[in-house]
Amino acid sequence: MVRILSYLNNQELIDGIHAAVPEAKVIFIDPSQPLTENLEADCLLCVASFLDGLEEVIAATKGLKWIHIFGTGIDGFPLEATGDAILTSSRGASAVQVAEWAFTCILAARKNLPENWISAPSPLWSIADNIGAVQGQTLSIFGFGSIGRELAKRALAFDMQVLATTRHSSVAMDGVETADSLEALFAKADHLVLAAPATTETDNIVNAKTLSYLKPEAHLVNIARGSLVDENDLKQALDDGKLARASLDAVKTEPLPTDHWIYGHEKVFLSPHLAWCDMQVIDAISTSFLDNLALFAKQEPLNNVVDKEAGY
């Protein structure tokens, strides 16, 4: 019997658990209540955004072998508290949706949208000097995981040049060139997409120095995490004409305060962290856990294991 300690109390998910492993026992945690004594479980199911008291729960649970994060990101998760337990997530579940959003931002920049939409007669009809094709442009992707690969597929279909960087020696995808340095990745970019996880290594990776590598006409797209960008340095680059446009789906503080400069900047196109949104993603996140549950019950290797040292 597999014992699952769960922060989530959703009947559809519970039905899925019993379909995958009929003998599974689910024990629910109410974060607002004191911990039950003598907690025992094989698996802990939690959500990265609900972290209050999580370290205490992990420490108090006897027999814990596996922790699954019901979501795709693990930034902010107390990795040091997991001990010897295997940690998995549902990374990749929203890769298509996020890649599509990033590519939508790229097309919007090249077609100068929404500026070229009109709601009244225009003095210029059938002519514009601020529109071009993405064909032949260079897309640089910082972080070549599941989102980066899905984005590259779409860019290649539009005949873009695709350059990427990864922790590994090669991006290992036909048509995608591996950048030999961060400077090369940034310097060649017409569009630079941030698709890397939030770690100590990527914290403020976009800063005054790295922004100086970009062309003045370059376009920055962040569909990763706000921590990757030094927002003060970004504002300076935009104000000084060293960067043409920034499309941001993630910012450091979410929700963004009402008086933040990002809201009013003419070169910034902000969305409220919704690139992932699609009900199919929730289904994919559930399936990721349930597939792993079936593997765990059979004592087989799990998918989407987090590298605790790397932080993702």
Automatic annotation (TrEMBL):
Q: Which InterPro entries does the UniProt entry name for this protein? A: D-isomer_2_OHA_DH_cat_dom, D-isomer_DH_NAD-bd, NAD(P)-bd_dom_sf
Question: Could you tell me which Gene3D superfamilies the record lists for this protein?
Answer: NAD(P)-binding Rossmann-like Domain
Name of one Pfam family that matches: 2-Hacid_dh
According to the entry, every stretch annotated as the D-isomer specific 2-hydroxyacid dehydrogenase catalytic domain falls at: 42-306
Molecular function per GO: NAD binding; oxidoreductase activity, acting on the CH-OH group of donors, NAD or NADP as acceptor
Give residue ranges for domain D-isomer specific 2-hydroxyacid dehydrogenase NAD-binding.
Answer: 106-275
The family database entries (PANTHER family) matched by this protein are listed as: 2-HACID_DH_C DOMAIN-CONTAINING PROTEIN, D-ISOMER SPECIFIC 2-HYDROXYACID DEHYDROGENASE NAD-BINDING DOMAIN-CONTAINING PROTEIN
- Record's family? Belongs to the D-isomer specific 2-hydroxyacid dehydrogenase family.
The name on file for this protein is Cytochrome c maturation protein CcmF
Q: What organism does this protein naturally occur in? A: Candidatus Micropelagius thuwalensis
Q: Which gene encodes it?
A: ccmF
